[in-house]
Amino acid sequence: MSWDLILKSFSDKSELTSEQITWAMSQILEGKASINEIKQFLTGLKSKGESASEVEALVAQMYSYSAPINITERAVDTVGTGGDG
């Protein structure tokens, strides 16, 4: 797997496979991707339009890196996602 292969998919307007998404998100979350690769990946997804299966794979990979938190009180998240919507 390589960034070149993944980034080429965006110019072809091809949907990424779950394996490609998983690899890319792992590279990002492990600090192995450069700022430029991250920028190209995110803008490529946005410009071609994310599919439901791509978003599902992104979320699954992010969850696999998440750590549970323990709180004793009830809590409500009042902070947005930081997205562009």
Can you describe what's shown?
By secondary structure, the protein is mainly alpha-helical. It has a single domain, classed as Transferase, Pyrimidine Nucleoside Phosphorylase, Chain C (Transferase, Pyrimidine Nucleoside Phosphorylase, Chain A, domain 3), CATH 1.20.970. Helix content is 58%, strand content 0%. It contains four helices and no strands. Helix 1 packs parallel to helix 3 and helix 2 runs parallel beside helix 4. It is elongated and about 50 Å long.
List the helices and strands and how they pair.
Elements: H1 3-11, H2 18-29, H3 35-48, H4 52-65
Helix pairs in contact: 1-3, 2-4
Helical/strand content category: mainly alpha
Beta-strand residue fraction: under 5%
Rounded mean pLDDT score: 90
Low-pLDDT stretches: none
Give the ordered list of helices and strands: HHHH
- Secondary-structure arrangement, i.e. CATH architecture: Up-down Bundle
Question: What would you give as the CATH superfamily?
Answer: Transferase, Pyrimidine Nucleoside Phosphorylase, Chain C
Number of strands: 0
**CATH classification class:** Mainly Alpha
Number of domains: 1
- Portion of residues in helices? 55-70%
What assembly state would you assign to the polypeptide chains in this entry? single chain
* Radius of gyration from CA coordinates: 15 Å
Discrete helix count: 4
**Shape descriptor:** elongated
CATH topology name: Transferase, Pyrimidine Nucleoside Phosphorylase, Chain A, domain 3
Largest sheet: none
End-to-end distance, in Å? 31 Å
